[in-house]
Each structure stands twice: as structure tokens, then as C-alpha cells.
């Protein structure tokens, strides 16, 4: 007869080791599907052959929705369904190995056992465990054959995100922290707070065996639009009633904040924050995931594979359309098979949690097969046209006269969108360029064929577009060419020196009236403050090249700069008797450097001193200095240190202690902020020994 409540031994250590889950901080068993785990229990006095186990998940478990399984003890495991094999028995303790199928629904399960002698009384509860995706199992949709890639894209808690612009790629560290205490629970709560779950919990849970479904739902839940999800976006340049997007150094703080506030959206995110949080959530659930940065990324709001930008006669970007070209945009790739599309479309899938355009009525994006993007198969699920445009759209630059509403094409470009597509290397802190996985070489015949194919599939080839430029406009050739050259360092705190180079391409002299502006922008190239303007009139002799030095002093731009440290410089050249020429450059300024020194050897459970050094490069004192430090396995929680003001040209040193809790390579991330330099970031790898 079944005794009182059986006591269960979940063999946490052994199971976690076998299932690659030992990095989770959890007292609950966390195992991966498609792989056996061991459970022992006592208090059931019964020939064990007659026991029946019940594993169930979700609000209304049933066999029909694959959210409930009942299984007895058999001699061998079944690869197709839940099964149990006897490991050992003693006087009143039973040890069994439970196997879940590789396509089981993921989530928190209740496990109970029923013995015949207990008759119709309810089964004895053994407890709960969490089942997640298994990239190490060949039967799982997320199976990733390369073990080093599993290590990086599932188990690595540190990442590097690339930013800046195509002329100047910068990078910063990020603490994904997918194994931190309670993060997995928050990920499961995200699924239970989704619109799909609220509308139909039973159907929603039954689809959680499918990484396509889980990825798409979570791409909606990471942004707050529609569903009170995790992060509220803000691209205004004003972040007063929240934390500025550039101040975060890891996902853990954001996810914990969301839960602690009663699931109210956390303020604020921009693309890399959305992408980093989605990376954390998907890695935590076992789906291999990485962040991808696309430079000169198109946001094609009207689906015509074309981005239009409008400038007035003075050269100001008029910001007239929903279309835009971002200096960079960060999204995700997750690895899983696409049985819905066919084997060639399996592998890396694009997901994007940044709320840009609605898909099926809500702000979600993907999974779009990366192979489909490269081949122009924009008719395939999900959201391929939008992603295809991000890396392939053509660019049209127009002059617009607000008084008459007349627009004139200045020029068009088909090779500047989607450059230097970047991600972190496997096992190293380096950048890897994956542009060739997204498209054929710019300007090649194959690349233009794919673009045509995509236009055809979207019905753009046969449709008359009254907003498109005429072939005559596209073919017109300018009389002069121009470019901005950078002369000297692009650093916050220093004057900016540029040279406008104008070249006369014709054999007769040209008179040119040049209107120049410089605006501070956010990284989406949205203009925020005018910094400087000037105009000149020049005559350029036949085939002559002329240079005009431009200086924008630090006091001129210091007040106007956004936290993105970006400035757009534009020269609109009106050539007498010829067509206008637009010269443009996006500048991404570097913050001053900070340096981290580890003073001594880092050993497990022993204090070690760390010093952070900052030199103030400007000739005024900087105030309100704060240092934020985090690092898995190095600090229990985020450290915030107030730093005294730093006088002009002086160096500040801040010391603190860390106590490493695990061996191996760990990363310490530092964010230093003051009134003149917000969010100066750096990281250091710390090798912790026994």
C-alpha cells in the first residue's frame, strides 16, 4: 500500500552534469528533452513493475495536446514517447531512469506515481522538474552538431555586441547571465504572459515543443508593445524617467527588474538591448542563439524594398518618412530546423525583438530563414520581406521643397545597405563577418538576380509606383563628386577636424554653392540637435579637386551630443546648370578609455583587488561619476560605486574587491558614467584558478 508522501531524490548533480545544466543556480531539477535522467524515491511498497508514472505540464494537461504522458516501467527506453527503465531497487527505494522524447513540450512538469494498490486514490506527487530544449540530442529540432558552437551559443554567458558605423566599428561586452538565479523561471513566466497564452493557454502550451513557435512568441514578449512585455523602447534621446539604453551591461538586471515590478515594462531599451535579452532567454531555454549587427541597416516601412530620404535646400535631413537607414541594427539568429520549409532552410533563423513593424498585428519578427534571405525567397514564413530589405534595400536621396511639395532625386544607391554584418567568434573575443551568409557579393550578377527575384515575389516588378524615380532621373550623371575625409581623431572631448573634398568631373569650370550642416543623431540616424551650419560658394576648375577644412569644436557639440556619440555631417552642393550632389558622413565618436587591472591572482573563494583607472581628457572637471561593475562567477550582484569628481586632465583610480566563485575564464564588465561622458564601457577577461 502506498505509504505517505514519497521522498524523492532528483540526483541534481549527476543529472545536471549529463544534461549540460550544471551552470543553472537552481534547487530544482533542470533537464533537456530527448535524454534520460535518473530519479529515486522511497515510501512506495509495491512491486515496482506495476508502477505508473504521470508527467504533465500546463494548465489543463492532456494526452491529446501532448502535455500529459502516462508510462510504466519497461525494459528499454522508447525514443518516440515518455518511458521509464528500472535502474535499481532496495527494500523500499526505487531508482528509475526517465526518458522524454526529443519533441516533448518544454516547461515545468509535475511528476507523480500511481501504484495499483492505491486504487482510485490520487497518485503520489514526486515533485516538479523543468524540461528544456536539447542542442546535444540529434533528434531535437535545435540539434547543433558542433560541440564548440553548443558551448558558445547555449552555455556562454558573456557576449560582445558590435556597434558604431560601417566606417568605424566599435564593440562592448554584455553579460547574458542566462543561468543566474531565477532567470529560467522568468523566461517561463514570459511564455505564460504572452498574448497567445492569454487567448488560449491549452493550445499555446501544446505548441511549446516547437522552437519556431517559442522564438516567435518571445520576440514579441521582449518588447513591451502589445503585451506588457519586458522592455519599453525609446529612441528620443531623452531617457529621464528610466535608465538610458546604453547604460545596461547585462540582461539579468533587466529581467529581474521586470519580475520585481510586477511585470511592468522596464525603461528603456534600444535594438541591442532587445537582442541581448532575447539571447539570454533563448539560451536559457536551450535554443542556440547569437546577436548579429547589421551596419547601414534599412528600415523599409512601406515594403517597396526602397528607402527614401529627403533633404531641404540647406542640407537638413527632413525625417519625412517612416523609412530610415540605421547606422547599425542588432537582431538575433537562433539555430533550429525548418520542417515547415524543407531542409535547405534549416540552420540559422533570424528573430528580431525590436519593435519596428507589426507582423500579424503585433510587434514580433521571425523566424526568417537566413538561407531564404540569401536566395530572395521572401514569400516564406516569417517576415522575410522586412529582413531582406534590412540588408538589401535600395537607397534614394531626394531634395524636397516644403513650400511647393516638389521632390527631385539627387541620387540612388544599391550597394550601401547591409554591410559588415558581424557577430562574436566562437570561443574568442573577436568579430566574425557573416555578410556573405546573407547575400551574394554586392554588384555581382547573382546579387542583382536575387534582388529582382525578391521584387517579383513581392509583386513590385509589374506594379507602377508613382513615388519611384524615373529611369532618366536614375541615369543622370553629376558634374562634381564630393566626400568628407576625417583629419584627426574622432573622440568625445576633442575638436573634430574634417575635410570636404570636391572634384570637378567635367572639362569646364563649375560654380558650386554648398550648404553644410552637422546634427547630433541617435544611432538610427534620427537628427536630434543642430550643432553647426555653414555655406560656401566656390568655383572648381576643370578636373580640379579642392579641399575645404571644417572644424567643429568640442564646446560647439558637447551640449548637443546624444549618448550614442553620433554626428551626421551633410553638404548639399548646388551646381550651377547641373544636378545637385549630396555629400554625407556619419561620425561615431569614441569615449575616453577606461582601464581595469586585476591586482594579483584570481583564485576561487579568495578576495582579489581590482582597480579601475579613468583619465579625464578635457579641461574641465567631470562630476556625478558612477562606476557599475558586474560579472558572473566574480560578483554576486551588480556593484555600484560613487566616484569623486575628476579634475581637468587628472586620473582617477577606484579600487574594490571581488571574490570569484567559479574557476575558468570569467569576464568583468565595467560601465563608467559622469556628466560629460555617459556610459564609458570596457571589460576584462579574468582567468580564475583553484
Describe this structure as you would to a colleague.
With 690 residues, this protein is of the alpha+beta class. The chain has four domains: 7-132, Immunoglobulins (Immunoglobulin-like, Sandwich), CATH 2.60.40.10; 147-458, Transglutaminase-like (Coagulation Factor XIII, Chain A, domain 2); 477-588, Immunoglobulin-like; 594-688, Immunoglobulins (Immunoglobulin-like), CATH 2.60.40. The chain is built from 14 helices and 36 strands. α7 (251-260) crosses α8. It is globular. The mean pLDDT is 95.
What share of residues is helical?
A: 10-25%
Average residue pLDDT: 95
Low-confidence stretches: none
Task: Give the biggest sheet.
Answer: 9 strands, mixed
